[in-house]
Amino acid sequence: MSEHKIIVCLDDDPDDRDLLTSAIKDVDSSFKVINGDNGIKGMYILEQLKQIGQKPCLIILDLNMPLMDGVQTLTEIKKDPVLGEIPVVVFTTSAMEKNNSFFAEHGVTVVIKPTKYGSIVEQVRELLSYCS
After folding, report:
1. Is the distance from CB of 4 to CB of 87 less than 8 angstroms?
2. Which of 23, 42, 70, 111 has the fewest CB atoms within 10 Å distance of its CB?
3. Is 94 in contact with 102 (CB distance < 8 Å)?
4. Does the structure show a pLDDT above 80 at 25?
């Protein structure tokens, strides 16, 4: 599988993960979505992919997750020279302004989760542009 067709999606809400995965598949079925429900699992997934030489084209990250939240996960991703090159989009329900400068500093786009599926599909079209 091409490294440009893997997206890692980290979100503790199974409904949100399912909606996002469905929207990605609806927009372009050639993408493989690997889901995790917290930052610790996400880092494990990313390390496993790195070890087999596969780099995701995008990491979609929720902020509010148990064990390791989005800010902590992003901090760990950015510490790694390989993982740090992967585009990260924060996809969240909360617009936590205190983190906006942190995300801007790391070149991370923050997207507020749309509530309607059609809007999610539109958002996914934009997110997939990071994978070109």
Report:
1. no
2. 111
3. no
4. yes
pLDDT grade for 88, boundaries at 50, 70 and 90: very high
Cβ proximity of 43 and 74 under 8 Å: no
Q: Which residues pair with 34 in a beta bridge?
A: 8
Q: How much is the average pLDDT of 17-21?
A: 92
Nearest to 9, CA basis, from 82, 131, 44, 17: 17
| Residue 18 pLDDT grade (very low, low, confident, very high; cuts 50, 70, 90) | very high
Q: What letter does residue 29 receive in the DSSP assignment?
A: T
Give the model confidence (pLDDT) of 46-68 as tens digits: 999 999 999 999 999 988 888 99
What's the CA gap between 88 and 78, in Å, rounded?
10
Tokens of 107: 């070149």
* Domains of the chain, first to last: 3-131 (3.40.50.2300)
Which CA distances in Å does 89 have to 16, 34, 52, 55, 128?
15, 15, 23, 16, 11
Q: What whole-number distance in Å separates Cα of residue 23 and Cα of residue 122?
A: 9
Tokens at 54, concatenated: 């596969």
